[in-house]
Each structure stands twice: as structure tokens, then as C-alpha cells.
Amino acid sequence: MRRVAVVVLEGAKPLDVGIPAQVFTTRTSMPYSVDVCGVRPGLIAGGDGLSYHVEHGLEALELADLIFVPGYRRPDSESPPEELARALRQAHSRGARIAAISTGAFALAAAGLLDGRRATTHWHYSRILADRFPRVQVDERVLFVDEGSVLTSAGAASGIDLCLHILRKEAGMAVANHAARRLVAAPYRSGGQAQYVPQSVPESHGERFTRTRDWALQHLGEPITIEQLAAHARVSSRTFSRRFRDETGYTPMQWIMRSRLDRARELLEETDLGVEEISATVGLGTATNLRRYFRRVLGTTPTEYRRTFSDG
Length: 312
Prior knowledge:
It holds the Pfam family HTH_18. It comes from Leucobacter ruminantium. InterPro entries: Class_I_gatase-like (IPR029062), DJ-1/PfpI (IPR002818), Homeodomain-like_sf (IPR009057), HTH_AraC (IPR018060), HTH_AraC-typ_CS (IPR018062), INH-QAR (IPR052158). GO terms for molecular function: DNA-binding transcription factor activity; sequence-specific DNA binding. By secondary structure, the chain is an alpha/beta fold. The chain has two domains: 182 residues, Class I glutamine amidotransferase (GATase) domain (Rossmann fold); 114 residues, Homeodomain-like (Arc Repressor Mutant, subunit A). It is built from 13 helices and ten strands. The strands form three sheets. A six-stranded mixed β-sheet has the order 2-1-5-6-10-9, sandwiched between helices. Strands 3-4 form a two-stranded antiparallel ribbon. Strands 7-8 form a two-stranded parallel ribbon. Strand 7, helix 4 and strand 8 form a beta-alpha-beta unit. Helix 5 runs antiparallel to helix 6. It starts with a strand and ends with a helix.
């Protein structure tokens, strides 16, 4: 069991607190235990008219493998307690992963954990974060940023994407997909996806591209070209490529390749199919292609991945 701590600050946003607590909830299907804590035990005034009564103080961070700092109100005018910053630095130095949801990034930045790193936060606060902490490389467009030991995410819903991303890396695709079904959430949105679709993209194209992505997922085993995708979406190839990247953060073919990789990961976890057969099934051709792409994206081989994450 891996231990998760969720730190509730004054003005904590309810959804931001609830997301990691529910995603990593202690249940038989999840290899995690969750502690919700504050800077000290007791009643904490949250945002949106809610308060929290927590049993644990910052001592919960001493044994945690993964620590979440949810967003809180007025991060631009109120600094987090110094004892929290100190506890976060100590946890990070011993190897814990630290993750922020929305404006929780301000607490990580105040602790110095984002210095020299890429990070994101809710788009409304991104310029403030960049101005207040100039050593942080703020990316205001993306849903989340994974810097290894430190992770940050945008607005509340992107916290779900970040949590599922962590689950995929730590527990595998099957566990992450099970959690997504339980939450009735999209099982996969790339961290590089834009926080919101630019207003210059007509709404009808957004809907059309969603159907086109669904179609592509049903035909991963077949050759797929940009021309086919554009024809399905009923726009020109040039328009499709430009607007697809605006919506997803990926070029169409990058998105197709990542989708094929994700499907291969599921088959490695849940079936006994050989690497050659899996590669053909997901449209990557040969086992050599699958191995090369696994190494490039995941830093491992299909065989090692199966050994780590398969039920057997």
C-alpha cells in the first residue's frame, strides 16, 4: 500500500480536496491509503461555504509517498504557512512525490519546489504565479505538468486528469481505467492538452472532432492518414491539423500514435497476446516498432511493462 496525504489549507476549494481523496480512496481495488490533513488538526475554514474537520496535522506528510496540495482561495494575497513549506521540502528531499491541483501550485512555489521547473495552474492565476515566482517556468495552456517528483495541474477538473496520469504510471492502465469508470471521467486526456478551446475555434468543429477521435479509436488497427481524419471531420487537411492541435495539444498523428501505445499497454496488462500480435492489432506493424515506441515514450520495453503491470 502506498500512502497518500491531502493537505487542506484555509480557503481550500472543495472539489480540489475531493478529487485526490476520491481517486486514491482506500478500497480493495486501489493499492493506496489516504489521509486528509491540515497544518494542524481541527476545523479548517474552506471555500464556497464549506469547512473541514481533519484529524491529522503535518505529521501525516512524514510517511506519505504522494502528497497533494489542493487549490485554495486568494493565493495571490495570502502566503501558505512556513511550516507547510518546510514539511513539503522535507518530504520531497526524502523521495515523496508532491502534486498540486490548481492554485495549490502557489504553495509548492513558495516552498521552492518549482524553481527551475515547468509548472501550471488555473489559467486565471498563471500570470500572477509567473510574476510572483520568476524562477518557475509557467505554462498557462496545459492541463498538467509532470516534472517527475513534482507535478502541477490546472483548474479543478484537470486534477482528475493528473490523478489518473499518476495512476497510469504507478499502477498501470487497468487500474487507472477502472478509476475513470468509477468517476465517470474521461480515461485519458494528455497533460499537453489546452486548458480550454480558444474561442476562434467554432463549437461545431469541436463536436465534429470529438466524433472523429472516437472513430479513430475504433480503427487503430488500420492505416490512418490525416486525409482520412480530415475527410471524416469534413474539413480540409490543413484546417483539421491546425484545429486538432488547438483542441488536444498534439498533432493528429502524434495523438494516433499515443492512442495506439495506450491500447498496446492495455493488451499487455489484460491479455496473453504476444508482442508481435499486439503490435499488429494496434496498428504499429511489427514488434520492433512497438519496442522502439515503448522505449521512446515510456523508457521501458513491452516485456518489462507486462512484467510490472500484468495481473499475473
